[in-house]
Amino acid sequence: MIHNLIQNVCDGPLILQSKLGELMEHIVFLLHLVDARKKELNFPVIMRKELKETMRTVVRDITLVMIPLIYFKSIINLLNHSDKDVGEKV
What we know:
About 85% of the residues lie in helices and about 0% in strands. The chain is built from 5 helices and no strands. The longest helix has about 35 residues, at about 1-35. It starts with a helix and ends with a helix.
């Protein structure tokens, strides 16, 4: 029982880091979609620019608190994405 509790406490930060990596990957993919489908979105240019700026800010802030292992894992996942344009966005 105590061992499981200690294990959960030790794994907690790594799980949080993994979730940050996943979040970063999703945001980068969405940023790619905003660029790729700008004509289909029918957003005013100013809104699209604001959205992209906000997404970049969130990614930057996430990367500031990520440990290198998770950061590079996420970058590698994005580079190996099935949509090669996502890799170029990275």
